Amino acid sequence: MPVWGAPIKLFNGKDLTGWKAVGGANQWVVKDGILTSPKSALTSSPIRSLKILNCT
I need a surface site. Which of 18, 23, 33, 37 has the fewest CB within 10 A? Predict the structure, then answer.
């Protein structure tokens, strides 16, 4: 079972400052303070919490 550290804020709720597209064109946009991708078929509701495991 992983042990989680302190949360790191990845999104400022305003714009894509600090983000960069890797491996292609950027598909992310900020709409009404929500980070979204018009090209994504994963979900139609906003993601409120996301845990990312760094495997490097």
Answer: 23
* Model pLDDT for residues 4-56, shown as the tens digit of each residue: 888 888 888 899 888 887 777 778 889 888 888 877 665 556 666 666 655 55
Please identify which residue in the block is written with the tokens 């495991």: 53
Type of residue at 36: T
User: pTM of this prediction?
Assistant: 0.50
How long is the chain?
A: 56
Residue 32 Cα distances to 22, 24, 41, 46, angstroms: 24, 25, 19, 11
Angle, vertex CA 33, rays to CA 22 and CA 9, nearest 5: 60
